[in-house]
Write a structure and sequence with these properties.
Blueprint (H helix, E strand, L loop, with lengths): L2 H25 L2 H7 L6 H25 L5 H24 L5 H23 L8 H19 L5 H25 L1 H5 L3
Helix pairs in contact: 1-3, 1-4, 3-6, 4-5, 4-6, 5-7, 6-7
Length: 190
Amino acid sequence: MNLPNKLTVFRVILVIPFVVLLLGQEAGWGWFDALFGGIMEYMNWITLVIFVVACLTDLLDGKIARKHNLVTNFGKFMDPLADKLLVCSALICLIELGRIPAYIVVIIISREFIISGFRLIASDNGVVIAASMWGKYKTTFQMIMVILMLANIPALQLVTDIVMWIATALTIVSLVDYIYKNKSILSDLK
């Protein structure tokens, strides 16, 4: 387990406190209020910091892996999966908080299921599909979108909406790109 893979696993682990803290502030859980009552006014910023730290691990693990030739099949598989888990968990929570329309989240999560299916079929055939540039752009814009939605700054609502639409468009473009580039995987199913 090299450093980039440890960073990827750490990103997955960060999803747990992120979701608990993000939803706990709105859920009215008695134990949550008792435990965090003194810092509830800062909870939005705490969850934002956790999410940003998780996003930074995504940036770091890839750079370290490429720079030090530590790219592994585990990393190629788990890195995009960790991104999906982080972003999709955040988006589902943001629906609960009323900060994003559910249909946008359905589009994003549907794309993730389709690509995960492609990767599963490819791995059964001994092929590992690494993230494409479109997929990386999509992930970057989705993470920026979530950061803006977590910050929940009214003066940035227009910017947040624009980033949301760009992220949604990149989600669709990256799906089409994956299907086109890997159509041979579908033809192998016949």
